[in-house]
Each structure stands twice: as C-alpha cells, then as structure tokens.
Design goal:
The chain has about 500 residues and is an all-alpha fold. The chain contains 20 helices and two strands.
C-alpha cells in the first residue's frame, strides 16, 4: 500500500520535482509544479501526524535494510508536527509567491527560484523525518545550499552579500554539526538516532562525548539563529525576495529548533543535556538577553523587513527559554511557539511583500498613509503585529501564556515578569509602523491595494492567527504530546 511509503515519499517527491523545474523553465508551469508538490507534502504530513498521534511512532526502513545497518525514517508526534508546519507554510506562501516573485525578479530566473524552493523544502523535510544522524547533515546541506541560492536571487544587489554571509556562517555551523556527529560515531559505532540514545549513556562520561555535545550545540544554535549566533539572519531576511523571506522565517529556524530538541532530549537525554552539561542555564541566559536586546534593536530599525528580522531572533529567544525551563509545560510552550511563530511571521512578511509590491520600498517613512491607500494589507499587518505582541485571542498569546505558566511552576515569577516586559517592547516597534501608516498623510494617493492573489493567502494566515488563538485545543494537544514524548513521560 502507498500509505506505508509516506515517510519516504515526503522527501522523494519534492526532490524529484526540483530538477523538473529546470527542464520546464516556463514560469507558470514551474509554479504549478512547485505548488502541487508542496500541497502533496502537506497532505502527507497531516496523514503522518494523525497516524503518529493515534497509533504511535512510524518507522520506515529504506531499501528494506533494518536499522541500525540501514537508514531509517522515524515519525513521531514531535517531528510530524514540524512536518506540518514546514509543508503547510510552503504551500500557503507558494500561492502568494507567483505574483510577488514575478514582480520582484521578472520571469527569466523564476524557474531557478522554484528549483531552489523545492530543494530547500526537501532538505527541511528530510532533516525532520530522518532517523539517521549523518542523514541530518546531508539534508542540512541540501536546505542550506538552496537557501543561499534563494537569498542571492533577491532584487537588491546586497542580497549577494547577505547570501555570502549566510554561506560563511552556515558552513561553520554545518562543519560543527558534522564534527559532532563524527565524534558520536567514533564513540558508539552507530549513526542511527535510536541506537545512539541507547549507547551514549555508557560513554557519556568521556571528554569525546562532551566535545561532541559542544560542537552540536554550537552548530545547531548557529543554524537556529540563537543569540548571539544570529549574525547571518537580519541581512538574509532583509534582502531575500519577499516570498522567500516569508517561507524561511516560517520554517528554517523552526527545523533547527526541532533539531536542538531531538538531539538534546532524545539522543543525549534530558539529564545529560540540561544537568550534566548545564545547557538549560545557557539557554535561559541567552534567551532572556535575546528577547530584550533584539527587541530594542528592532525598535530603532528604519527598514521594516529588518525590524521583523531582529524580532525573529527575539522570538527564537522565547523558544529557547521554554526549552531551558526543562519542564513538560516549558517544552510544550516552545513547541507551541514553533507553530504560532510560523503563522505570525509568515503573515507579517507576506504583508510586507504586498506593501513592497506597490511602494517598491519598506523604509518606515515611505509607508506614510498606507493605512488609507492599502487598507486590507495594513490591517493584516496590524493583526499580525497584535499576535506578535501576544494580545489575547491570537496565537501569540497562547504560547506566551504557557511559557509564563512554565516559569510560575518553577516559582520563577521574576522570569514571568521579564517575559511580559519584553512583549511590551514589541508594542513599541509595531506601533511605529501603525503610527506612520494611519496618522501621517499619504505621499502617493494613487497607490492601490495589493493583488488578490497575494492578499488572500496573507489573510488566510491572519485568519489562522486568530482561529488557533481562539480554538487552541488541538495544537495544545499535539504540542503537549510531543513534549511528553521528548521527556519520556506517559
């Protein structure tokens, strides 16, 4: 039955479709191909999530070779939830991308964008679904190399510099991860993740395992843009094409946070990672610094895209605080924020893409009066901003609420106060845009609203921000189950 092959089809379909975009080249054909493949991946992801939630984890042996000799794909609630995030955001943004990309890049290079997009999707899905540590590195390189291409194709010449910065930093991070995996293999003789988790305890006291942990922690943190290893992210998000920024902001760092969870809770174990190696203290300190410092930096940005880029680093800070709390509620809050932040930032960057489509600028002063000339786009930005702040009835409130509950469970009321205070900083930088958009006269009264092909997917994500903020039971169930699996709880 085809249903038994869903884990490998999740990766194989976009991988095989990517070179087809180079063959066809025609803009509409390649867009339809990329969108169709992404939607198929979403359907597979939803099916895998439901199977994992109702019947337990799914294991798939490639070529019929049993693990640990062969490569195994393993799907549980944790990574199935991430699969849905990645494929879902790719599908929504691709609906939006056709008009946006053609306007920003023309049609001559569009097939390269969709080729890179499908390869990036392949890499992100592969990282998430594989149960083999070396395969993680392989898929990481696929997603990274295609990301460099996508960023470098941006309409501004500075996109090339941004892509080069990301290439340098990404290569360092990938090298650290490869060294860490190599050291694990040297000490255990296996690359299968389940096998690693069983063999590491016997050698966990050795310097080699400690070094492997350190290399992996640094490499994954760099890929996830955890403060202060975020240097590559602001320029990459600012100068990439609008649709690419929306896709990467909603998926790339989320997969890296998933990797952090998978390695340090599933492979190394919670006690080794958070107590022996004291990773929880590092994550808490860097997370608190990030939510304040990056929000303050965002306040002073004149380019709105760069403002949201720094905001993304701050939001990653909330996730690592949840992980650093080392409790079921804290991990659940971090996983919830993976999903909720994808909805928030995807919608916000898509709204900015709509504004760029008409104004050809995202400088704050150039946005004067767009609340009247582009009312639907500006309204989408405002609602997305409210979710980013954490206003009740939005997804941002749900994950921050559970994060605060996790801090109070530990009796750390001071950390709860800091989380609330940092959220108020988001009010400042979102308000700066609102003030200019609604309370200053329009510079060009002839500006029209963005095309419907861009507005509809943007508002679909805005509606999701509200829907999953009001009716959050299902996402809370999935996130709670994922946290329990990571911590080995019933």
């Amino acid at each position: 039955m085809i249903s038994t092959h869903l884990p490998v089809l999740q990766v194989a379909i976009p991988l095989l479709a990517a070179p087809a975009c180079v063959v066809f080249r025609q803009a509409t054909v390649t867009w339809l191909l990329a969108l169709s493949v992404s939607c198929i991946s979403l359907l597979i992801s939803i099916s895998l999530l439901w199977q994992a939630f109702t019947t337990g984890e799914i294991r798939y042996e490639l070529g019929g070779w049993a693990a640990p000799w062969g490569i195994e794909y393993k799907v549980d609630v944790v990574n199935a939830f991430v699969l849905v995030i990645v494929s879902g955001m790719s599908s929504v943004v691709l609906v939006y991308a056709r008009e946006s990309l053609q306007h920003e890049l023309g049609i001559r290079r569009i097939h390269l964008v969709y080729t890179g997009w499908l390869l990036c999707l392949t890499g992100l899905l592969g990282i998430t679904v594989t149960g083999d540590a070396f395969n993680v590195f392989v898929f990481l390189e696929i997603s990274s190399l295609s990301s460099y291409l996508l960023i470098g194709l941006g309409p501004d010449r500075r996109a090339l510099t941004a892509a080069f910065q990301y290439l340098v930093m990404g290569t360092i991070g990938a090298t650290f991860i490869l060294i860490g995996i190599g050291l694990l293999y040297m000490m255990t003789g296996t690359l299968n993740m389940t096998d690693l988790s069983q063999r590491i305890p016997a050698v966990s006291h050795t310097t080699t395992i400690h070094a492997a942990f350190a290399f992996l922690a640094l490499g994954i943190a760099l890929k996830a843009a955890v403060f202060p290893l975020h240097y590559w992210l602001p320029n990459a998000y600012t100068y990439a094409p609008s649709a690419v920024t929306a896709f990467m902001a909603a998926s790339a760092t989320k997969v890296s946070i998933y990797l952090l969870l998978r390695f340090f809770f599933d492979i190394f174990s919670e006690s080794f990672s958070l107590r022996t190696m004291r990773l929880n203290e590092i994550l808490l300190i860097t997370g608190v610094i990030a939510i304040f410092s990056m929000s303050l930096v965002a306040i002073y940005q004149q380019d709105i895209k760069r403002m949201l880029a720094y905001s993304s680093v701050a939001q990653v800070g909330y996730m690592v605080i949840g992980i650093g709390l080392a409790s079921a509620t804290g991990i659940m809050a971090a996983i919830l924020h993976l999903f909720n932040h994808a909805l928030m930032k995807g919608a916000l960057f898509m709204a900015l893409g709509c504004i760029f489509y008409r104004l050809k600028s995202l400088e704050l002063n150039d946005l004067a009066g767009i609340g009247r000339t582009m009312p639907w786009t500006t309204a989408a930005f405002v609602v997305g901003g409210l979710s980013l702040i954490g206003v009740p009835l939005t997804v941002g409130f749900v994950s921050k609420w559970y994060l605060i509950l996790a801090t109070l469970e530990r009796g750390w009321w001071w950390l709860a106060v800091l989380i609330v205070a940092s959220s108020l900083l988001a009010v400042v930088y979102i308000w700066r845009v609102v003030e200019v958009a609604y309370f200053k006269p329009a510079q060009d009264t002839e500006v029209n609203e963005a095309p419907m092909s861009m507005l509809i997917p943007t508002w679909a994500l805005i509606a999701a921000n509200v829907y999953f903020g009001v009716n959050a039971q299902q996402t809370i169930r999935f996130a709670g189950r994922a946290a329990a699996e990571l911590l080995g709880l019933p």
